[in-house]
Write a structure and sequence with these properties.
Radius of gyration: 29 Å
Strand content: under 5%
Order of helices and strands: HHHHHHHHHHHHHHHH
Structural class: mainly alpha
């Protein structure tokens, strides 16, 4: 008897899997999280300090690219009254003449374009990739050397044999042409401060590169770690000259969502959730596709394997949304757990001690919130002796499974 098989559009072959709505949903979710992460981090970590700007500072190493490019524009510009000669890359592509989010639109579109070209390059055969690499290298070498040779040669024809530097006339000095690739590298450096992790993240999502995803997350964590160090007063004073704007040392009072979280904590929590959502969705796509690729070819058309794969990926989509929401809620609760405990003590004791402690500034500092989160973890871990968490989670998953089963039957 012939083995039952599924329609060709539902098999577990890689080209068909990449068109499944679950895979596309996870990739789109990761891409949206990456773009929102760019906007949120630019808003939180992009500005320079007010004192630095008022003192006439031009560039600080913050998560923003236009100030660095403006500095490069002035440094490379040979004509003091012309602000358009300093950059070799077109200003429209850099977004240097715009402000805010509009300055990021065109570079972001370029990241998508480069990602598409990279994916096309990776899908070609070895011969094509070899010739493409050689052609790119040859083009860069020709672009760096040929203009210098042509300029020097035409100058020799006009003025006679001479060295391309140290001459009394600018038309006879051509050595600066050789440094144009270095200028391009400087411009790409300032652009890459913001958009290198975005490009790596897009390549990781759509090019199925786990290494690129990890690199992008590592870059974001490095930026967050640097600004976290700046919350300490001693470090802030030591690096005050570079112009970075430190985050407030106090997390602030919880005034949002019914006193659940403070505005600053909400901004930082949004960044953390977006990083989790980006990394989890991107790696989930790679993990599921790797599993399907390793299956025997006959199993990729087997209805049982197809059904199991569909159930697993559907569950993953549901769990991603539910778990990320639960993480956001529990993190907000953990940050305000100290206030909850003080309120309980105030109700039970009715003394002034809890009020005095609640007004203490130490609870609003970073280490105070770390202690609050640690107490929350201890409380939840201790409740395992009272609340059967595994049983509760099992009942929730059983309810979700029964709900999905009733929908499929209907």
């Amino acid at each position: 008897m012939a083995m039952e098989s599924v329609p060709p559009s539902q098999t577990l072959h890689l080209p068909r899997l990449r068109r499944r709505w679950q895979i596309l949903f996870l990739q789109t979710l990761a891409t949206a999280a990456l773009i929102l992460l760019l906007f949120r981090m630019s808003e939180v970590y992009g500005p320079c300090s007010v004192e630095f700007v008022e003192a006439g500072g031009e560039w600080c190493p913050s998560y923003e690219h236009t100030r660095g490019l403006n500095w490069a524009d002035g440094a490379f510009d040979e004509q003091a009254n012309d602000d358009k000669d300093g950059l070799l890359i077109p200003r429209t592509l850099l977004g240097i003449d715009s402000t805010g989010f509009s300055s990021q639109i065109v570079p972001l579109l370029l990241c998508f374009l480069i990602t598409g070209l990279w994916i096309v390059y990776q899908t070609q055969n070895q011969r094509f990739r070899l010739w493409a690499a050689r052609g790119t290298t040859g083009f860069i070498a020709a672009w760096a050397i040929l203009p210098f040779i042509f300029a020097w040669g035409s100058s020799i024809l006009a003025y006679g044999l001479h060295l391309p530097f140290g001459q009394p006339y600018d038309d006879m000095n051509h050595l600066a042409i050789l440094f144009e690739p270095l200028q391009i590298a400087v411009e790409l450096f300032f652009l890459g401060i913001v958009f290198a992790p975005i490009l790596a993240g897009l390549i990781g999502i759509w090019g199925l590169s786990r290494r690129s995803l990890t690199w992008a997350v590592g870059f974001f964590l490095m930026i967050i770690g640097i600004h976290a160090l700046l919350t300490f007063e001693g470090i802030t004073e030591a690096v005050s000259g570079i112009g970075l704007q430190p985050l407030p040392a106090q997390i602030g009072e919880a005034t949002l969502y019914g006193g659940l979280i403070s505005p600053l904590a909400l901004e930082l929590l949004e960044i953390a959730i977006l990083i989790l959502l980006f990394h989890e969705s991107g790696t989930a796509v790679i993990g599921h596709l790797e599993y399907a690729v390793m299956l025997p070819d006959a199993s990729k058309s087997d209805p049982e394997y197809v059904r199991q794969f569909t159930n697993v990926i559907n569950s993953h989509v549901l769990h991603t949304v539910a778990i990320i929401a639960a993480v956001a809620l529990t993190t907000a609760l953990a940050l305000e757990f100290d206030g909850f405990m003080l309120n309980v003590v105030a109700v039970m004791e009715g003394s002034q001690w809890s009020g005095q402690v609640a007004e203490s500034l130490e609870l609003q500092l970073t280490y105070g919130k770390v202690i609050s989160a640690g107490l929350f973890l201890l409380a939840v871990a201790g409740m395992r002796y009272v609340v059967p968490w595994q049983r509760v989670s099992g009942l929730i998953e059983a309810g979700i499974s029964s709900l999905r089963g009733s929908r499929s039957d209907a």
